[in-house]
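JOB MANIFEST
job_type = single_chain_structure
chain_count = 1
residues = 260
[input]
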Amino acid sequence: MSDQVLLAEHRPPFLILTLNRPEVRNALNSKLVQELELAIDEASLSADLRVLLITGGGDRAFCAGADLKERLTMSESEVRSFLSAIRRLFVKIEELPLPVIAAINGFALGGGTELALACDLRVAVADATLGLTETRFAIIPGAGGTQRLPRLIGIPLAKELIYTGRQLSAQEALATGLVNRIAPRDKLMEVCLELAGEIAKAGPVAVAQAKLAINKGQDVELHTGLAIEASAYETCIPTEDRIEGLEAFREKRQPVYKGR
């Protein structure tokens, strides 16, 4: 068993974070949450990164949710504090200027599905299983699941899945829109990196502003959403990258974006 609960692999311009607790299906304990939050904070300050990828160690699980054995040792106040830390972490992932891809390599249950929901895109292996199973433990999804899942797949289906705690196969998750793509197990990271590579060809400022406009705009009425979009577009206008994109088009070459 490794003492490193989180592994970071830099493949410029990408960063791969691996939850490294395979012996407990990469369940989220206090240490892993703390280290993942620190890694997200560092990624937010990096000028060289274009896409962040999150996956699970081993070949069984992406993340099986919160570490329930640790939870049993916690007082009620400690449980509240831990849940607050997870919520803060997932919001940071959701609001990270970089696109975040969840490479779901197996079980993603409870908090594991909530982690995937906080990411921008989700790619799952064909035998992955996803689900918000918390009601079966007499609790509810407490790290954003009741809010992010309905926004992604619609209220009626989200209610059914949350009320029942039902698990979905990768194929069912794809059909509902919960995951974007399915990949063969031995090709998962290759597919995710190809997707990340497609994103990295775009202007980084533009991608960050598009993410902001989508995230902020989905919870407001259309008129306000259009104003958010206009503000995000305005941020792109004075950038060097916008001029580079125009010049590259004129010169019939690939643009070289610098994120400024």
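[summary]
The two ends are 43 Å apart (CA to CA).
The chain has a mean pLDDT of 94.
exit_status = 0
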